[in-house]
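Consider the tokenized backbone below.
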């Protein structure tokens, strides 16, 4: 008889490869009130339309409680899928409700995509830098990540094409197309069309992850890559950044056949997404509250971006560069090459300011991601001042 079970001896290869998410761990640390966090990609606490959400939940509970509290279908609440199919049509993709699978956040979509496509040692192509949660999902299924550098107008497609001509054929290309996490960059329409062609020429599908396109600071965001697709793109959308991340409702949209396969994969993951949440989200959208509130959000985040850009101009030393995003929640900072943001992180925390190190996103050692949606306007300025002091102490 064993005196205590040594669980780790039983771990799968997959479990042994799991690493804690730097963002999720950081989130715990930055709960301390004295720290100004530019870390996690959290919406502003002032972004939530609490009264309208309450109205929707009350309506669902008063009129449909027995359905909202019951199991739902794996595919998702039918009215929400119809709404989303219409929404995707407006974005330029002729979706039917069967082309939509509702998921518990896009993060679940990324996990299901990995479950369905990735075998051990398969190659996945991502941007550099790319979304940490995507990289973690692919790595959890033992994929090998190969990165293609980002340019100001999106992934460098010459390098992508060169890579596809030679070397092992990847399973898919993962692209955060609009106001990218982490760099804030938006892929140009020209490149959207071109990457669809490349994907068809080299027979490698595209996974387009697009949580931020509704947060464009001026004008219409570009149409998704999906709009130019010929059955070769799978799209992930979410209500996390436009409505609420706590409500955990997102969707996958693409060719019916693959949406069906993902649905079967979801059956063994969680049976169905939260029904009360899905019905609440549907009511919120159906009553026009999503659109109404988005107007407020775009203005608020534009203001916060401007405050951050101005503070950086005012306080950051020479030799530091940053992106100027036209939407979304993040910008990307590049320090002189000799500064390692991981080594600098401890000093930043001592100075009560936090960021995410660039290497977490498969970016350079001298880079970092800053979030401008979560901190208050005053904290953005104060936090940038604190960060500037830390950077200055390392400038040669
Ligand atoms: N993809 C990207 C690019 C993201 O930035 C995020 C959230 N930070 C997600 C997916 C996951 O979001 P959620 O699971 O809340 O929908
Ligand atoms: O809290 C999370 O993990 C979601 C946010 C992601 C991000 O900061 O990129």
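A designed sequence for it:
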């Amino acid at each position: 008889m064993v005196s205590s079970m040594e669980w780790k001896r039983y771990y799968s290869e997959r479990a042994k490869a799991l690493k804690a998410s730097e963002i999720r761990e950081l989130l715990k640390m930055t709960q301390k009130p004295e720290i100004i966090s530019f870390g996690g990609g959290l919406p502003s606490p002032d972004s939530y339309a609490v009264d309208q959400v309450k109205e929707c939940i009350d309506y669902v509970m008063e009129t449909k409680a027995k359905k909202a509290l019951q199991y739902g279908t794996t595919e998702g609440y039918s009215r929400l899928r119809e709404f989303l199919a219409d929404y995707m049509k407006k974005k330029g993709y002729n979706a039917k409700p069967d082309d939509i699978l509702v998921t518990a956040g896009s993060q679940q979509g990324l996990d299901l995509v990995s479950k369905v496509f990735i075998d051990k040692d398969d190659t996945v192509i991502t941007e550099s830098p790319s979304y940490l949660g995507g990289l973690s999902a692919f790595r959890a299924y033992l994929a090998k990540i190969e990165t293609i550098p980002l340019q100001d107008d999106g992934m460098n497609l010459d390098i992508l094409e060169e890579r596809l001509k030679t070397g092992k054929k990847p399973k898919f290309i993962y692209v955060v197309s609009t106001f990218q996490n982490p760099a804030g960059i938006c892929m140009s329409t020209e490149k959207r069309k071109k990457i669809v062609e490349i994907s068809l020429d080299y027979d490698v599908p595209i996974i387009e992850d697009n949580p931020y396109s509704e947060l464009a600071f001026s004008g219409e965001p570009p149409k998704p890559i999906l709009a130019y697709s010929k059955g070769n793109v799978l799209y992930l959308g979410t209500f996390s950044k436009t409505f609420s991340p706590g409500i955990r409702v997102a969707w996958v949209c693409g060719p019916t056949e693959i949406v069906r396969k993902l649905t079967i994969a979801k059956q063994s993951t969680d049976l169905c997404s939260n029904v009360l949440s899905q019905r609440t989200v549907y009511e919120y959208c159906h009553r026009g509250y999503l659109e109404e509130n988005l107007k407020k959000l775009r203005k608020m985040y534009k203001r916060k971006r401007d405050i951050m850009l101005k503070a950086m101009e005012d306080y950051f030393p020479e030799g530091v560069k940053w992106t100027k995003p036209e939407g979304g929640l993040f910008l990307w900072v590049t320090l002189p090459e000799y500064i390692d943001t991981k080594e600098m992180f401890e000093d930043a925390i001592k100075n009560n300011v936090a960021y995410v190190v660039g290497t977490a996103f498969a970016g350079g050692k001298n880079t970092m991601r800053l979030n401008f949606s979560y901190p208050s306007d005053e904290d953005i300025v104060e936090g940038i001042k604190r960060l500037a002091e830390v950077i200055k102490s390392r400038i040669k």
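The chain is about 45% helix and 15% strand.
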